[in-house]
């Protein structure tokens, strides 16, 4: 006797894939670029090799941090509204941008204090 295969119902269509929010990805990338620009700026001042490039890195860091901050807020709102993936990337981009601004403020205060101390002598 030959065995027959049991009746298998047809496969159901796969569940729809949840897409990742593009604005959240932009926020994540901008936050990382802001931190990287800040580190390059510090490295260029400390090594005194590319000190002329330091203002460029600072400007680039500010631009990318502002972009990361704004797109992080917009990305979080869109993720909440649409249910897309990307909430973690939006939060990370937002946090990295805030971290850049905090470090930039601390560095500015330290540079001013160093300049005041240097000119007092």
The geometry reads as: elongated
Portion in beta strands:
under 5%
Total domain count: 1
Mean pLDDT: 86
Q: What low-confidence regions span 5 or more consecutive residues with pLDDT below 50?
A: none
Spatial extent as radius of gyration: 24 Å
Helix and strand element order: HHH
The count of β-strands is 0
Structural class: mainly alpha
Tally of contiguous helical segments: 3
Biggest pleated sheet: none
Helix content range? over 70%
Spatial separation of the terminal alpha carbons: 105 Å
Structure overview:
The model has no long low-confidence stretch (mean pLDDT 86). This protein has one domain. The chain has 121 residues and is an all-alpha fold. The relative contact order is 0.18.
Please outline the helices and strands.
Elements: H1 22-47, H2 54-82, H3 87-119
Helix pairs in contact: 1-2, 1-3, 2-3
Q: Which keywords apply here?
A:
121 residues, mainly alpha, 73% helix, elongated
Outline:
The protein is 73% helix and 0% strand. It is mainly alpha-helical.
């Amino acid at each position: 006797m030959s065995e027959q295969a049991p009746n298998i119902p047809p496969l159901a269509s796969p569940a729809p894939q949840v897409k990742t929010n593009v604005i959240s990805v932009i926020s994540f990338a901008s936050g990382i670029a802001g931190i990287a620009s800040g580190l390059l700026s510090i490295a260029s001042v400390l090594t005194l090799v590319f000190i002329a490039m330091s203002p460029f890195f600072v400007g680039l860091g500010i631009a990318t941090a502002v972009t990361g901050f704004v797109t992080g807020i917009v990305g979080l709102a869109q993720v909440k509204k649409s249910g897309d993936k990307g909430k973690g990337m939006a939060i990370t981009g937002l946090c990295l941008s805030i971290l850049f601004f905090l470090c930039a403020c601390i560095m500015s205060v330290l540079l001013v204090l160093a300049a005041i101390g240097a000119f007092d002598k």
